[in-house]
Amino acid sequence: MSEPRKLEVLRAIVEDYVHSREPVGSKALVERHHLGVSSATIRNDMAVLEEEGLIAAPHTSAGRIPTDKGYRLFVDRISQVKPLSAAERRAIHSLLEGPDDLDDILERTVRLLSQLTNQVAVVQYPHSKRALVRHVEFVLLAPKQVLAVLIADTGSVGQKVVDAGADVSNEALMVLRSRFLGSIAGTQLDLLPQVLPSVVALCPPELRGAAQALAVGLQALSDTSREERILMAGTANLARSNVDFPLSIGPVLEALEEQVVMLRLLSDMGDDPRGVTVSIGRENPYDGLAEASVVATGYGSGAKVGILGPTRMDYPTTMAAVRAVARYLSRILGG
Asked: Which residues are CB-neighbours of 107 under 8 A, at least 6 positions away?
């Protein structure tokens, strides 16, 4: 059995099983695919694929289904990720374009990716350890209450109500805003604890109490913005895939609920030359995802966006959708 024909037969089995959910037999392969050989030859080819652990017979079925190893070979041999349709590209463009804040953009991203793939979409918030201060604003709410706003270059916006400790005027806040912005604009968020004390020291003596309170508020905002977070959408899609999770869908749902599991999984996924990384079944380090695959890629400054679904998925289409959404996301966020 030649290597090209082995790959062609495997490709046909994967494609038929993905679309039918039924084990694939040699007769169906001959009828549906122009493989140029007899049914007997296909049966022999399937026997070889089974010996190599690329396909398997579920229970007593006469048909065969791909194994994790078979999916891996199929994915590795995809010569190119097929492009999205014009309608899909327009959907991505229209849904993701806009001047809204980071939270809104990422929420729309996971909803869109879930709709495009019919899987669970996951997006990691941009890595803010490398994020820089873009803007600072102070808004007087009451004589002693100030709203501190910290905007990072990733698009994240943090707000905190600060007790200034004494009455403060709008004019005083303008002075403080000027001092803080002039000193910390362009500073990495994780360096603010070292920088803020010197900013307070530069403020007029009569405003240092308020400056100290505002500095504490800004540091709290920078700490919050550095928390690793993910957003998800489309969990209900898993419920429609009960055939694909014969053991239990519970462990998959638990993995999704445990954000630290998904964060670690996304962070550990390396880079693929095609720009999209695929982790299949038991390749996932978390046992609960032994029947699931994760397709992900980086965007912006290295955060990940991707999908989680059953190993029986349309990998070329899913990979194309993940890659396209990531590219739009990077462009919108300027990453």
From this structure: 231, 233
3-state DSSP call for residue 299?
strand
Q: Which long-range contacts (CB under 8 A, 24 or more apart) does 168-172 make?
A: 168/140, 168/143, 168/144, 168/207, 168/210, 169/140, 170/140, 172/207, 172/210
Sheet holding 120-124, edge to edge: 230-233, 120-124, 303-310, 292-299, 277-280
- Which position has the token pair 């463009």? 93
For residue 239, what are the contacts with CB-CB under 8 A and spacing of at least 6? 249
- Can you tell me which residue has the tokens 């007790």? 163
* 16: three-class secondary structure by DSSP: helix
Residue 176: both structure tokens together: 């403080």
Looking at per-residue pLDDT, the higher value among 223 and 317 belongs to 317
Phi, psi of 54 (to 5 degrees): -90, -25
Tell if the pTM clears 0.85, that is, is over it: no
Alpha-carbon span 62 to 291, nearest angstrom: 22
Burial class (CB in 10 A: 0-12, 13-18, 19+), 44: middle
- Cβ neighbours of residue 153 closer than 8 Å, sequence gap 6 or more: 131, 132, 133, 134, 334
pLDDT digits 0-9 by tens, 61-89: 678 999 999 999 999 887 666 677 777 77
Strand partners, 64: 24
CA dist 25 and 31 (Å) reads: 10
Q: What pLDDT is attached to residue 31?
A: 82
CB 77 within 8 A of CB 129: no
Written as one letter, the residue type at 18 is V
